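Subject: for your reference before the review

Hello V.,

The reviewers asked for a structural picture of the protein, and I figured it would be easier to keep everything in one thread rather than splitting it across files. Below is the amino acid sequence we used in the manuscript, unchanged from the supplementary table.
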Amino acid sequence: MKRDVAIVGAGYVGLPLARTFADAGKRVLLVDVDPVRVEQLNAGESYIEDVPTGVLTPLVDAGLVAATTDYDELRDADAILVALPTPFHASASPICESSCPPPSRSRRGCGPATSSYSSRRRTPGRHGSR
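And here is what came back from the structure prediction:
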């Protein structure tokens, strides 16, 4: 199914971002590695305080938000956003190897007209002290 936006990572950044796009009438696909999380999302159940179940369910029912574990579905999106936590060394410098896949892997299966954007962020309370 054609999607306007795909978001890799359905956590506390990805899910509110999906809600924002869906509220604007965009069809959003969330891609996450956790099949339990994906099942919850497709049932309209939220686990993120900023997106209550009462807000998510109508978006899922309207077909504006869907979730999957299948990265191949990214090829059906016009734009891809990456909302994954960046791991940090104890020195607070980012460990990019695990969260910044090479372009050939991160855009696997994407068409030439597909845009992608990656935003690095720190997970609250999970980074080394400075």
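For the response letter, the relevant points are probably these. The longest strand covers residues 3-8. The chain has one domain: 3-118.

Happy to draft the paragraph if you're swamped.

O.
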